């Protein structure tokens, strides 16, 4: 790539005895980019990226000038840019299918007569195996070893495949199971804040901001370390790996001013739930959020990372924090090299990217403000992260949900006997209390807080209620080490919070089964059971199929709810239990002070701890070392495997794309309302025996006990397409029971037969009949995790278009990346205002021929009685690059043809 230097930005930075090439924003401002110094810090990162990659084709001088012009239009002119992140981060749920696609592309390249070695990551890719451990065993010292044993038994095929990938592809590293959650490993070890690359031919070393895209939406956690990164679908990540720029619109940037300090007894979790609620209300979907103000002065990187982590929950692309003294402290504490720490400080100061308390605020599109002193203890639930409830109102709010959400008004006194147990169970009982997920298990203040609260509870003689499934799944081995050093693990064990594994467990549905007798009591009596978890996601059907109400809370509150055992206990005013002295014990009696928490942090968390634990991070434990595989340039697919299969995306692919056709006389597969998440669309969690996926596995001689879960089978399209739109809580408004209520589960009505069947079965029948399909939805379609299978499954079911009132950013992009057209209604129109029932046929013309970004088209709706409505819709293929992806049948096809040519 021949690079231009229109603004004379290419300069040399001397740090100690080393010199680096860098692209100076200060020089660029002197040479025509007026006002660059006033840009938000996150925009400065984008500007540097464009200066470094100015080639006159993908990045032009006009593109760079548009970044400076942002000060006038503040991101509202919808200017497209090509952005190239420094690296890609993956977890194994989304990483396995991405590596499957790369392996399939190598086969396809061979079939097109090209060189398979061209299919290789061109930027560093780190895949952290963290999503496969399930909480089967809990509340015992054997829990960790038993869960690891089961993990390797279930995932041997996947792990062999990933080991093959690590040797077959260049620039591709695998962090083995049992190390930690990808975001925490990224924060503690992989990220550098300033990245460097050496030119092997010239020896020249270039320094630039550390940036990434990740196949997990919570990639944004590393924004707390001033690393610009966000979640993309696996499809987009694969393109970035293969050297394609991320096509994006210059964003609006919302400034979030923080002032004051958190009060005693208030945690970072309480803060992030407050921030999430505020930003959801503000409306920041597709926008950058950048934090600033005097409240940052004393805020640790761990607290910043907690806020950054939840960006998908507040709907933003990222939640960015600039480099300052706290960033440097964290890099030192986590044992980054002295040379790197010195470079980060020198680079940030040279670029005007160093935040100081006295500097002028950047210019933002819009702002909002929070005084940290106003934050109060909080939870979020029962089914969305933005539904914050204060701790003192949690009980009445749950009672309100019992009436409105669960239609159980007047049933709160109902208790039922549990078989073989000396206790009963009722509505609102907490059956899962899990310290889990990246959001909080990276944060020493709340983790140490949970350990101290456990210690104080044990001293008082309290125990967890016997119906609560308790678990501790730390984000990295660092946590295990500081709990051990602090002497707190024994107290957590005494309350049943034994170590169950290092990874993302309950938050992604890997909570494991409840004890059989508890599960039976819940299901036989239609109880509204509760989980309390320190995670970031609490969507319906996600945590556990037996649990209908799910609350996000800080790790100390998770422990407190395990002691109380019910949402009907008011933690502010009611006792948690009776102490060994016969007196009631209240939460305030055992809550540790912030001074005590900080003393433990100062005493136990040292740079030596990080240095030791991450010294040999890619080698893995004895289990990983025993995993064997067949090396080779292309993968030897096992046709009998139920975990990894060669996907059909490239079957019959030609060197030139076939012309796109219009959508003619399509049938409706589903009519969905607002807030359909990727959890509803993409297969996740348990695989039921009586489902298309369950039947497929049983036909391949897989026992129900060995089904594992959808996440681990993402490398097999046969399982995944059968599980698309199969969530137990999804409601297709086409399907109603005798009394007219919408039926839960993955069903549809086939037309014109009128037969009710599984969505997968109907889709296959339509495919055999040669009938294209459409899905209709309401607002915020595709919110949640950046699950590429929500788009892949949609494509494989034969869906040509999804028509909604609005889309979540990543999912819209993923649909285009899989050749599915996203459309939005004009304001005030929806499928409901059109009176659609599901038996109509749909025609959309305009996709064939010269398609333009965001083109307005006409949808023709023909009712069963032959009457026709014509409705304007807007095609949300947003950029010229996306038009090319769509024309090629998807982003991977586009890249493959480019490389083959």
**Which structural class do the helices and strands define?**
alpha/beta
Can you tell me the residue ranges where pLDDT is under 50 for at least 5 consecutive residues?
none
Beta-strand level of the residues, as a percent range? Answer: 15-25%
Could you name the CATH class of the domain at 380-605? Alpha Beta
Biggest sheet descriptor? 7 strands, mixed, barrel
The CATH topology of the domain at 380-605 is given as Aconitase, domain 3
Task: Tell me what the CATH architecture of the domain at 380-605 is.
Answer: 2-Layer Sandwich
Write down how many β-strands occur, each being a DSSP E stretch of 2 or more residues: 36
> What is the approximate shape?
globular
Helicity range: 25-40%
Q: Summarize model confidence as the mean pLDDT.
A: 94
CATH superfamily of the domain at 380-605: Aconitase, domain 3
Major β-sheet strand ordering: 26-31-32-33-36-35-34
The total count of helices amounts to 32
Features:
901 residues, alpha/beta, Aconitase, domain 3, seven-stranded mixed β-barrel, five-stranded parallel beta sheet
Can you give a write-up of this model?
The chain has 901 residues and is of the alpha/beta class. Among the domains are: 10-83, no CATH class; 380-605, Aconitase, domain 3 (2-Layer Sandwich), CATH 3.30.499.10; 648-682 and 730-900, Aconitase, domain 4 (Alpha-Beta Barrel). It contains 32 helices and 36 strands. Helix 16 packs parallel to helix 20 (555-564). The protein is globular and about 75 Å long. The two termini are 17 Å apart. The model has no long low-confidence stretch (mean pLDDT 94). InterPro entries: AcnA_IRP_Swivel, Acnase/IPM_dHydase_lsu_aba_1/3, Acoase/IPM_deHydtase_lsu_aba, Aconitase/3IPM_dehydase_swvl, Aconitase/IRP2, Aconitase_4Fe-4S_BS, Aconitase_4Fe-4S_dom, AconitaseA/IPMdHydase_ssu_swvl. Its EC number is 4.2.1.3. GO terms for molecular function: 2-methylisocitrate dehydratase activity; 4 iron, 4 sulfur cluster binding; aconitate hydratase activity; metal ion binding; RNA binding. Its cofactor is [4Fe-4S] cluster.
